[in-house]
Amino acid sequence: MRQVELNTHISGRFNIELENLRNSVMAMGGEVEQQLVDTLKAISTNNQGLAEAVVLNDLKINSMEIQIDEECLRIIAKRHPTASDLRLIMTISKAIADIERMGDEIERIAKLVTRNKLPASASIKSSMLQIGQQVTAMMRGTFDAFARQDEDAALSVYEQDNRIDSEYKKLLNYTTLEMTRTHDDMEDWLDILWALRSLERIGDRCKNICEYIVSLSRGRDVRHIPLENLQQKLDALS
């Protein structure tokens, strides 16, 4: 298992600051994960009150992003970090932006419930919940890999996005077919399509964070490298 080795500093306070920064990211990630769990429960039970709570709680996630970003800037200005420390802080700054976007996507999905626009089709709703569970597992794996700074775990989670993309495309095709068979309001269908897209986008955001973890480990930017080429490139760098 390949993990990131961070510096040990003469300043114990600096060590504490970096650890607190990582813990703040994990707290933010846990908050977003719970948002998705609650949203899927709201969809399953058509619980508008729970969905409303998810929508309102997005403000807390936004605030957490701002606080963590400000702490990153404060540490850079005060400690002048270098090497792996600087990479960690930059990784955190990028990761929290993706986590905040996950919160936005989840909010959009929750609004299907608050606006009473859940799909009438039991098949679409069931498939949506199934993909949601897969995305939840991917999100959980992403945050676990981040907590342990585990490159192997990040690569394993990264691969899960392909399965989610495949399931999303199948559901998208089926939903489009259902749209042509019914006379429902087109605006309602568009809201459903956007919500499905939001689920898929959460998986993409998880994949981004996994790439950041690998980049942190290797000291090389691995973004935009196709999965089938990524492992080969990493092997060459070893």
Write the layout of secondary structure elements.
Blueprint: H1 12-45, H2 48-79, H3 83-114, H4 122-148, H5 151-181, H6 186-218, H7 227-237
Helix pairs in contact: 1-2, 1-3, 1-4, 2-3, 3-6, 4-5, 4-6, 5-6
Separation of termini? 13 Å
DSSP helix count? Answer: 7
Low-confidence stretches: 2-6
Shape: globular
Q: How much helix, percentage-wise, in residues?
A: over 70%
Taking all residues together, what is the mean pLDDT? 90
Descriptive report:
This protein is mainly α and 238 residues long. The protein has a single domain (12-237), classed as Phosphate transport system protein phou homolog 2, domain 2 (Methane Monooxygenase Hydroxylase, Chain G, domain 1). It contains 7 helices and no strands. The protein has helices spanning 12-45, 48-79, 83-114, 122-148, 151-181, 186-218, 227-237. The longest helix has 34 residues, at 12-45. 33% of the residues are buried. Mean pLDDT is 90; it is low at 2-6.
